[in-house]
Design goal:
By secondary structure, the chain is an alpha+beta fold. 47% of the residues lie in helices and 24% in strands. It is elongated and about 150 Å long.
């Protein structure tokens, strides 16, 4: 506002900052005076400079305040923060570097950071910096830095792409986590060795039992006793085959059906007296839980043994086919078919039968399965059992 008074000369100019009145610049004369346009413009110009000076001072003060706040946060954050150059030098570090590594910050800033890297990590770290220079983020990159006592700490890094010639990054000491992970891996490895040794011992013990039964069978004069001992030996052998595969597989909780069912069938076939017997085995690689695999091995042994023992009386070209597969509903199917004389009506209806058939029915029931018998150019027995979630690798037939 401009005011002119012929009796008292006063000139007031507002001082405005950010569209807000912060003061008034006042000029008066001790005598009557008429203010010229130049005088008025000069005072306005002074007001503008004063406004700019006040704004600049406020901005500077705010900037200093924000800088102090960020410096406090930079120092208080427990992670290891840094600003580094692309040519391999630290430019700024927070106090966490001293806490984790033990070196004074002045020492770390005075040498290339590669001097503190583990020798095996220098190349990978340089490659990671090149990735950042190419505009990529760093996430979970890991390397090792030497501490003041000569040991190394594992650091996990996060960083933005290079801005200008500078890197802005944060690291976290994960040494204890790595050591815990290593202890867990060691424990798991130890457990795996123990389980493998258990499988090995069980397999050996079963083989010993099978050998003893076989020896007893050969020495026994009773034909029926010899047959019973041989059948018992093959039952033990069927279980031993499963444990043999469990010992050798990388996953000790499951076993591939295609890896042990053919061996079980072969054991029965080798002890068979059926002349000209043709056997085909087509089992898909279905991963069976170990407990189910034992049951499948015993069931296979019993069904093949019964076929070899009873199916081919008077049959000119005896044929036996064993197939196994899984379906889209998560069930494993085992089918044993022969071209023999077939089953009686009672056996088809689940009546009668010997110990072997009772074993099959009991095992299938224990695993919530189903069994179906029919005569179709011979005997066809089909067993279906559910698989646990995640154990099915082949679907559909």
């Amino acid at each position: 506002m401009l005011v002119a008074n012929l009796t008292l000369a006063v000139l007031d100019v507002p001082v405005v900052r950010s569209e807000q009145l912060v003061g008034v610049l006042c000029l008066d004369a001790p005598e009557v005076h008429a203010w010229t346009d130049d005088e008025r413009e000069t005072l306005r110009e002074v007001s503008r400079y004063l406004s700019l000076a006040l704004t600049t001072e406020t901005v500077r003060h705010d900037l200093e305040e924000r800088t102090r706040e960020w410096e406090m946060l930079f120092e208080l954050i427990p992670d290891m923060l840094c600003v580094a150059s692309t040519d391999g030098w630290f430019l700024k570090l927070n106090r966490s570097w001293e806490r984790v590594l033990g070196h004074r910050r002045e020492e770390l800033l005075a040498s290339p950071y590669a001097d503190y890297l583990h020798p095996d990590d220098v190349t990978t770290t340089r490659q990671e910096v090149e990735r950042q220079s190419a505009g990529q983020d760093t996430v979970n990159f890991v390397n090792r830095y030497r501490t003041v006592d000569g040991t190394y700490r594992w650091l996990e890094w996060w960083a933005t792409p290079v801005i200008g010639d500078r890197l802005y990054a944060a690291a976290r000491d994960i040494t204890e986590r790595r050591e815990q992970e290593q202890r867990i891996r060691s424990l798991l490895s130890e457990r795996e060795l123990i389980v493998r040794e258990a499988h090995h011992r069980i397999k050996n013990d079963l083989n010993i039992v099978q050998s003893m039964l076989s020896l007893q069978a050969r020495q026994n004069r009773s034909k029926s006793a010899r047959e019973s001992l041989s059948v018992a030996g093959r039952r033990v052998g069927a279980i031993a085959r499963v444990y043999e595969k469990l010992q050798r597989t990388s996953d000790m909780e499951v076993v591939d059906a295609a890896a042990f069912v053919p061996s079980v069938v072969s054991d029965v076939q080798s002890s068979s007296n059926v002349r000209g017997l043709r056997v085909s085995v087509d089992v898909e690689p279905v991963r069976l839980p170990s407990r189910l695999a034992v049951a499948v091995g015993i069931v296979t042994n019993e069904l093949v043994t019964n076929a070899v023992k009873y199916a081919f009386v008077g049959v000119g070209e005896p044929t036996l086919r064993i197939t196994g597969w899984s379906d889209a509903d998560g069930r494993f199917h085992l089918r044993v078919a022969d071209n023999g004389v077939g089953l009686s009506a009672d056996l088809l209806n689940g009546k009668g039968g010997g110990f072997g058939m009772a074993v099959v029915d009991a095992l299938v029931s224990q695993h919530a399965g189903a069994i179906h018998r029919e005569n179709d150019g011979g005997t066809v027995v089909r067993v279906s059992v559910p698989l646990k979630a995640g154990d099915r690798t082949v679907a559909g037939r």
